[in-house]
Amino acid sequence: MPTAHTPSSAASATAVVIPHLDRLADTAACCRSLAAQTLPPRVILVIDNGSSVHTADELQAACPNAVVVRLAANAGFAGAVNTGIRRALELPEVGFVWVLNNDTRCPPETLAGLLAAVGDEPRGGLAATPLVENHGGRRCRIAPGKRLRHPWLVPVPTPPGRAPDYLCGASLLIRRALIEDIGLLDDGFFFFFEDVDYSLRARARGWRLAVAAAEIEHTGSATIGALGERQARYYRAGHVRLLRRYSRHPLAAAFPPFCFRLLADALQLRRAALRGTLAGWREGWRQHVTT
């Protein structure tokens, strides 16, 4: 049931945006969990990021309650999300966009809880949910946001009683007025740190970050692969891009965590991760970045 603090229905019509790549069963299960929401979304948009293991018709059949938008090539997480947001904002009744990883399962009260977290406060711009992941049979609770350790802007756990610096993009509710104020995600972040950048941009404009109580199930690293070459590459490129935008001395701030990661991967003989970290470092400095 919506709570007393849930925004009115006219303002709370929500479009869900789910980036998808290849993992048909995950996305189908996510969409099924959305069909059971106590406060149903106005539309579910599944953005197919250039999948190669199934057809568009197979994806639509697996997600009959969704609108499937197929991209010709992988545009990255931010690129897929931006495609979905543009489609969502074509609907004038949509007041919120809920960005959701395809490898999540949402309890029935999740959307109502997110809307209650932002409430009717006009500057309540972003809300996120805690994640629960299964690691080797052990359930781990992942906080919905983290702090950034300066000057390196490295994500670290948020101390008790402190507000996070940013919210995780795996399950992120965005108020339409915020999007109209600060724009879309920066798709220069192919995968990683786009949520950090978006939260920082929102806070700089006076928007408030909120945390919902409901926990959602998250597979974790299902699309990109844990500790692989692509993950390391996208992570390092995104971190460099973030520092180039927000640090006064980006090279000095980027170099220590870069060296630490190289050493850690070398000691553990993670050759693929080493290759990815080096490639991401080069890529991050070559990109065009606006500040």
Explain how this protein is built.
The protein is an alpha/beta fold and 291 residues long. It folds into 2 domains: 9-218, Spore Coat Polysaccharide Biosynthesis Protein SpsA, Chain A, CATH 3.90.550; 229-286. 40% of the residues lie in helices and 21% in strands. It has helices at 9-12, 24-35, 56-62, 76-89, 110-118, 176-182, 194-204, 229-246, 250-267, 271-286, and strands at 14-20, 43-48, 67-70, 96-100, 104-105, 124-128, 131-135, 138-142, 145-149, 154-156, 166-167, 171-175, 208-211, 216-218. Helix 8 packs antiparallel against helix 9 (250-267), helix 8 runs parallel beside helix 10 and helix 9 packs antiparallel against helix 10 (271-286). It starts with 8 loop residues before the first helix and ends in a 5-residue tail after the last helix.
Question: How do the helices and strands line up, and which of them pair or pack?
Answer:
Elements lengths: L8 H4 L1 E7 L3 H12 L7 E6 L7 H7 L4 E4 L5 H14 L6 E5 L3 E2 L4 H9 L5 E5 L2 E5 L2 E5 L2 E5 L4 E3 L9 E2 L3 E5 H7 L11 H11 L3 E4 L4 E3 L10 H18 L3 H18 L3 H16 L5
Parallel strand pairs: 1-2, 1-4, 2-3, 6-13, 7-14
Antiparallel strand pairs: 4-12, 5-14, 6-12, 7-8, 9-10, 9-11
Helix pairs in contact: 8-9, 8-10, 9-10
Helix tally?
10
Largest sheet: 7 strands, mixed
- Mean of all residue-level pLDDT scores: 92
Number of strands: 14
The CA-CA distance between the termini, in Å, is 43 Å
Radius of gyration from CA coordinates: 19 Å
Global geometry: globular
Kindly state the percentage of residues in helix: 25-40%
Given helix and strand content, the structural type is alpha/beta
